[in-house]
Amino acid sequence: MWVRSDRPARMVVQTAATESFRNARSWHGPVIGPDTDFTGVTSLHGLPSGEQIHYRVLLSDPDDPRRTGEPVSGTFRTAPTGRRTDLRFHWSGDLAGQGWGINPDRGGYRIYEDMRRRNPDFFLCSGDNIYADNPIPERVTLPDGRIWRNVTTEEKSKVAETLAEFRGAFRYNLLDDNLRRFNAQVPTITQWDDHEVHNNWYPGQLLDDDRYTEKDADVLSARSLRAFGEYFPIRTLRPDRGGRVYRVLRHGPLLDVFVLDMRRYRNANSPGRQTDDPQGILGAEQLRWLKRELSRSRAVWKVIASDMPLGLVVPDGKTNFEAVAQGDPGTPLGRELQLAELLRHIKHDRVTGTVWLTTDVHYTAAQHYAPERAAFKDFEPFWEFVSGPLNAGGFQALKLDGTFGPDQPFLKAPDRANTSPAESPQYFGEVDIDGGSGELTVRLRQEGGQVLFSKVLQPGRVGQ
């Protein structure tokens, strides 16, 4: 459970089976203060599985626990222990990008209300929770002459460089009523990507950006990661858990979610033509971890939450590439070598039920990879689904790289760069897993809830 106060306070959490809070249990959390930007986290243990839990959070005076603020209440569902329970979750990413912030004329981040009404068990945010490198202006004139208005703050008036500015960027999104209402009902699994720091950053980079006085990406990323950990309760970010974003979350017997970090361990963006690349985009240690945990998983479905797409060619300037693919449809080179090693492992270790979910490119698509179409053939077929942004500019579709044989049965993208949320739909994906049959259904939806594409996958298969 996460909370933010406006002053030093003791965090207290109460949970119960009903709204009346009869027979409530209490957890006394930390005293929160300026060292964490007045944010705090309390872990709850021993809750019943597969149940709707009512909670309320109280903030009390550290010197007088009888003095408390108004309680903040909400609900969540705990993970089931039995396989017969149906499961639903959503995923998307990219929030307040390209200067498109909270627009009160549109009702703010409306897509969060669309998702909340569908009552998912949890939400997977695939990264770019903030755009630290994109200030939020008061107004933007659209191509048709309309005016886009933004809620603004001091911290979002410039690029984020200091810890205070990164914290302010995370606070900005919480000004939206839809997002706060969503957070009160739906737990979130959070990963990060580049815009938590700077567009297309990688470790060791020195920024070529005149807006910055601090140009060392490692310094900026350390500040951002601290603020990220303060605003999202990620247990593995604690020093005693390795201080890492990548992790696996087990949601009962039907589902394990493997959350990747394709940012913090990557090598420098390059043309991607190396014939040997042990660091790649994941780093050697994370790749070993992912192979090991996939093989250990006994869940029916293994969702791999990737903050970048696999087969889409994402450029970084004129000659370098940002994601895995680099446009050469031949045998794997550069970062593709790590993906080939992973896909080979999944095939030969008979890992069933893998599905890849991502966001990043600011449109929505479904991509199927198959060895009969590929230059690299030692893998089983699999699906990758793309959905986003939540509230950012829309961009044109990118080319597919043929190395792993992708086919694209569905695509929806704008025809020009940086279309505003007022001009181009925002997107989220939905996954339903049937507790009886084990079938997994993916639906790509747009703002308002309309289904654009759906695909049903069968359980127990190495490839689909």
UniProtKB/TrEMBL annotation:
Residues 95-444 form the PhoD-like phosphatase metallophosphatase domain. It comes from the Bacteria. It holds the Pfam family PhoD. Residues 2-78 form the Phospholipase D N-terminal domain. Coiled coil: none annotated. Gene3D superfamilies: PhoD-like phosphatase. Residues 60-79 are annotated as: Disordered. This is Alkaline phosphatase.
